[in-house]
Amino acid sequence: MYTVKQRVFLVPKYWQTGSFKAYQTAFQKEFGERCAPSKCTIQKLVKKLETMGSLLTQHAGGRKMSEETIHDVKERLLASPSITMKTFPRD
């Protein structure tokens, strides 16, 4: 299980690089971990964010995001990769 901070780091890093190997290396460097999440794990996290709109563990009834909202969030994360989710603008 990965922390929220680690999950928030992984998805934008994968979107930036488009490479599983690059995000694994960045993850190991950022968190000092010997083992990075697998390709399957990052695919699940990306899908979760795109379908559920969150990287948190969801209970039944989570709302889904529109394609437009997903695109907007992705673009804002890529434009400001160091921004925290706590201060992430929710326009």
Evaluate the radius of gyration.
13 Å
pLDDT below 50 for ≥5 consecutive residues: which ranges? none
**For the report, how would you describe the main beta sheet?**
none
- Provide the domain count: 1
Shape category: globular
- Give the helix proportion (percent range): 55-70%
Write down the secondary-structure element order. Answer: HHHH
Secondary structure: number of strands: 0
Distance between the termini: 30 Å
Helical stretch tally: 4
- Output mean pLDDT: 79
Output the structural class. Answer: mainly alpha
Oligomer: single chain
- Strand percentage lies at under 5%
Structural notes for this entry:
The chain is mostly helical. The chain has one domain. It is built from four helices and no strands. α1 packs antiparallel against α2. The protein is globular. It starts with a helix and ends in a 12-residue tail after the last helix.
Give a quick rundown of the structure:
This protein has helices at residues 4-17, 20-31, 39-52, 67-79. The chain has 91 residues and is mainly α.
Topology, element by element:
Elements lengths: L3 H14 L2 H12 L7 H14 L14 H13 L12
Fill in the keyword field for this structure.
91 residues, mainly alpha
